[in-house]
Amino acid sequence: MTFKKLITAHFHLAVFVSIGFGIAAFNEPDLVLMDEEGLFGPLRNNLLFAVGYLLLGQIGLWWTRYQNGGYFEALLMGYTFLATAFGAKIYADVNGMPVSPAFVMALYYFAFAHFLYYFLARPKEADSDPTVG
How far apart are CA 95 and CA 108, in angstroms? Predict the structure, then answer.
């Protein structure tokens, strides 16, 4: 298996794991915010909305673009995961909320997988042809 195929397989695995994590977060919100007392209801819901947007974006991009390449879209989604990880950490610090470290690390991992796919699995002709990816 070539390096690019390995990166591509890793990327698609990360996409499916992110979709699974998003679905699991709605079934078990403690994956996102450790809130045993129920003190952070509306604030927790804001984070779950962010997870919902990421989930819908991943499903939509996988269905329409990732199956046929979609390198630029992967880059944008990687930046979105990275921004959400930074934003969740800042949001938690400002509001004094115990955001799950696993949630933030998962967002960093998904961003990293998307960046690897864009920078290492993209074909060389995509650099010179703006219609590719």
Answer: 21
Distance (Å, rounded) from C-alpha 53 to C-alpha 37? 26
At residue 127, the pLDDT reads: 55
- 21 in a structural domain: yes
Tell me the residue type at 94.
Answer: V
Model confidence, pTM: 0.85
* CA atoms of 40 and 37, how far apart (whole Å): 8
15 in a structural domain: yes
Interatomic CA distance for residues 94 and 102, integer angstroms: 19
Q: How many structural domains is the chain composed of?
A: 1
Give the span between the Cα atoms of 107 and 22, in whole angstroms.
11
Assigned domain for 61 exists? yes
